[in-house]
What does this fold into?
Amino acid sequence: MAPKSKTKAPTSGKNAVATEAAPRLTRKGEETRERIVSAAAGLIFDRGVAGTSIEDVKDAAGVSSSQLYHYFADKQALVHAVIAHQSDAVIVAQEPLLGKLDSIDALRAWRDQAVAIEIQLQCKGGCPIGTLAGELAEADPDARADIAAAFARWEEQIALGIAAMHARGELPADVDPDRLALALLAAHQGGLILTQVRRDPAPIEAALDAMIDHVAELQAAA
It folds into this structure.
């Protein structure tokens, strides 16, 4: 049996990083709320939180002030919804690979997917979660906690595959799957920052290649 991951993940399911349950909405209400959040997420990804106003979101979503404030008390509440939205988007974008990273081939396919996404985006924008962290971690403690939960959710998905390898005896007994998963995520994020700054996929390629080569070396030593 695979060892249990030490990473504490937030409640599973859509908008898992949200700290409070949203009131039940009608189908039309859900669609309107999602349209607002999706519009805000796109604007914030392009312009940042500071560069995105409520008026910008209203125009992009095609809603009135009364509609927007029906779902969100203020801009901070909307930003928290965007964090949950982007957490879901990041996980979905990596499926079906994420959560099944239980071999070197699977890890390399995940690496290739990450590089392909950056090439498609022309290495612009960075990580939807990471860019929010850079802007909000020191300014909004509640947002920082939500972002940390989003990263924990991602980390746990990586750890599932590493733990499976460990349980099969494909990694040395003293290897900590959670720590290895954390290192893989850190390599991804660090490489992505340099990729964004340089407009070159080489940093994320190098960072993930180095970590995956390390896992392969551990596998060979098992």
